[in-house]
Each structure stands twice: as C-alpha cells, then as structure tokens.
Design a protein that fits this description.
Blueprint: E1 2-6, H1 10-22, E2 26-30, H2 33-42, E3 47-50, H3 59-69, E4 76-80, H4 85-93, E5 98-101, H5 106-122, E6 127-130, E7 133-136, E8 141-144, E9 147-149, H6 153-165, E10 170-171, H7 172-180, H8 189-201, E11 210-213, E12 217-220
Parallel strand pairs: 1-2, 1-3, 3-4, 4-5
Antiparallel strand pairs: 6-7, 7-8, 8-9, 10-12, 11-12
Length: 224
C-alpha cells in the first residue's frame, strides 16, 4: 500500500512516517496543498491522508480538485482537528471517503487506510484485458492469444502494474517505487525485469505490447 500524506505540521509528519514505516507501509509526504495535489495527480497513491488547514490550497479544495482532475478514484482520508458536524459534512461533500479527527490513535489511522485501499479494489474486475493479453488476478494466469505465459514474481508484478495503469504511461521512478518501495536495490533491476518481461510477453508474437515512451516511461499498447 502506498500512502501520500499532505500535512503541514513537521512533527506530525515525522510521527506518521515512523508509524507507517513500522507497519511496512510506503509513505510519501507533502507540506502544502498545491504540491500535494500535484503529486497525487502525477503518481496517484492507494490512499491520500489529507489535512484541512493547509497553506496555499486548503484540504477541501485539494479534494475537490483531485476529484475533478484525476483519471481514477483515489481514496481520501481527511485527518483534521475540525470535529464539528458541519466540517465533516463539508469534507464528505468535497469528495472525502473517510474522516478522522485529531488527536487519533495510530492503529486506527492505519486500519482505516487499509480498509480504504481494500474498499477501492472491491469493484475492480479480477480479469484484466489489454488487447490480446489477459491476466486473472485471482490465479495469476497470464495469457496472450490464448497462450499461457509463465512469468516469475517480479516480472508478473511489473506486468500487473502496467496493465492496471493502462492506457497510462508509468514513469521509471513510479515503477521502481511500486515494486521495491523506499529501498530499491542499488543496481538497476528494472532494466533486467523489463527485458525478462519482453522476452515472454512480446518476443513470441508479431506485435509488441510493451512500449517505451522515450523520456517518460513505459506502457502497454493494445494490439487488437
């Protein structure tokens, strides 16, 4: 799970970083509304934890802009000291999925983030299709033109990321972060796994699915 926290209090940011790291959750942070919104749009997290009293662009506006401009639904948990019913209702009207009042228990925040990420995936189909490619996420069965493709763990995870993002292009840094979190290997393992994936996914077939978008990243391109 990848969590983006938009919070201007440096002490709380540090505490949340420790909390999420202790649970094995990959967390990123922004200190103001505008930069946080830009990051959420550029690399959508699995859950956005959003303060309301932010400099530049407050949390309500961030949520509204995210809902208007994002190409997917990003679960939003508003984390704020505003405990009045009117504030909570305003938060939900702006597009929030959940609302937690400060002070809060760290275990509850983590539990709510996990629940939001799972709820967001609840309506996602098990079968992904991109052109001649099909991926069954329950069985990890990958087929192209009806032919079963055998992929080891990392290459399969890489293909799943690309298929779930399709037709969007994923940047190299986004793929590395999603595959290895905040501690990627010192070498360049992505190059190796891309090569391995291409050997299985594209080499046996006349039309490649995996495309390099020069200067941007990588994406799948439907062949039918």
């Amino acid at each position: 799970m990848r969590v983006l926290v938009i919070e201007d209090n440096p002490v709380l940011r540090a505490n949340l970083e420790l909390l999420f790291a202790g649970q094995g959750i990959d967390s990123r942070f922004a200190a103001d509304g505008l930069s946080g919104l830009q990051e959420a749009l550029a690399e959508p997290p699995d859950v956005l934890v959003l303060d309301l009293g932010l400099p530049g662009l407050d949390g309500m506006r961030v949520c509204e802009q995210l809902r208007a401009r994002s190409d997917r639904h990003v679960p939003v948990l508003m984390l704020t000291a505003r405990d009045a019913l009117e504030d909570k209702l305003a938060g939900f009207r702006s597009g929030a999925d959940d609302y937690l009042v400060k002070p809060f228990a760290g275990a509850e925040l983590v539990a709510r983030c996990v629940a939001l990420s799972q709820r967001h995936r609840a309506g996602t189909p098990h079968l992904l299709t991109v052109g001649s490619l099909s991926i069954d996420r329950r069985s990890n069965l990958v087929q192209r033109h009806g032919q079963t493709l055998v992929l080891h763990h990392t290459a399969l995870q890489l293909l799943l990321l690309l298929a779930e993002a399709w037709p969007r292009t994923l940047t190299r840094s986004e793929l590395v972060e999603r595959l290895w979190g905040a501690s990627p290997p010192e070498s360049d393992p992505l190059r190796t796994h891309l090569y391995t994936l291409r050997q299985v996914l594209d080499k046996p077939f006349p039309v490649p699915l995996l495309k390099t978008v020069h200067g941007v990243g990588f994406r799948l391109e439907a062949d039918t």
